[in-house]
Amino acid sequence: MIDHSDRVVSRKEGTFQGVGGLDLYYQSWYPEGKVRAILAIVHGLGAHSDRYSNVIQHLIPKQYAIYALDLRGHGRSPGQRGYINAWSEFREDLKAFLQLIQAHNPGCPIFLLGHSLGGMIVLDYILRYPQQASVLQGAIALAPTLGKVGVSPVRVLLGRMLSRVWPRFTLNTGIDMSTGSRDPQVLAAIAQDTLRHTLATARLATEFFATVDWINAHVGDWQLPLLILHGGADRVALPAGSDTFYQRVNCTDKLRIEYPGAYHEIQRDLNYQEVMADLEDWLERHLPPETAQLGKGSAELEFPSS
């Protein structure tokens, strides 16, 4: 338990079983008192569940609980770094994670948030499993990699060629770390992050691009309330991709906000407070009526920079 003035944050960690019996790591943070809703977070390529302290700091005082997992091949979870046999492993792992959250919190509203590659995992899951996803209050995609990405065409071509014959072949993504955030403190924290990696395998590359194509081909089936937040100067996941996807979503309950000048780690960029305020506002408007009026806190929490 971490005491922050009049707020007590309860942090827990554990594992749950993913595809093939892999024990995947997760963390959860709970406010003191009644939980109004839960936000489940799926991180991006090379990242992990520790990267969302600004989200936690902002939402815990508003009586939200937060759950975040480490994807297979990432963070504290096992598996070759940056490798999957098939995209369905990400999808089924997320399904198991949501089942765990529901088992721990029966009847509590759940929102699902994905950042970058995690945004792709979230969108794919909801489109593939509309019945299971219908229990969610809504989905949030931060800087989803839906179009062109900041990886050189040579690396992409190499990945496609080697996927069948050498699927575990590993390359550095070559993504410039400075494209993550305009905040020097955040860049310094990223550079010192021992859980972070910059690796991707040939199989992941082909599965990724196939999934991008599938998502864009099925965007017309989208039915859940959707929020997309994207940096206008994102050079890792170009914002045009999420804009095209957004325009093709038929569901009327949708919102996309693009922040001029903002980079890829939108939740940790210089304008993160504006992003957090927009996220909170959208969440508040999508809470069920019976939980929307439960006691909202006002105390601000302080977490180490990460």
List keywords for this structure.
single chain, 306 residues, alpha/beta, Rossmann fold, 9-stranded mixed beta sheet, two-stranded antiparallel sheet, 10 helices, globular, disordered N terminus, disordered C terminus
- Runs in which pLDDT lies below 50 for 5 or more consecutive residues are 1-6, 296-306
Might you state the CATH topology name?
Rossmann fold
* Overall body shape: globular
Share in β-strands: 15-25%
Average pLDDT figure: 87
Helix content: 25-40%
Strand order of the largest sheet: 1-2-3-5-4-6-7-10-11
Q: From N to C, what is the helix and strand string?
A: EEEEHEHEHHEHEHEHEHEHH
Note the gap between the termini. Answer: 20 Å
Instruction: Supply Rg.
Output: 18 Å
What composes the largest sheet?
A: 9 strands, mixed
Secondary-structure-derived class:
alpha/beta
Q: How many DSSP helices?
A: 10
For the record, the CATH class is: Alpha Beta
By CATH, the superfamily comes out as Alpha/Beta hydrolase fold, catalytic domain
Under the CATH scheme, the architecture is 3-Layer(aba) Sandwich
Number of strands: 11
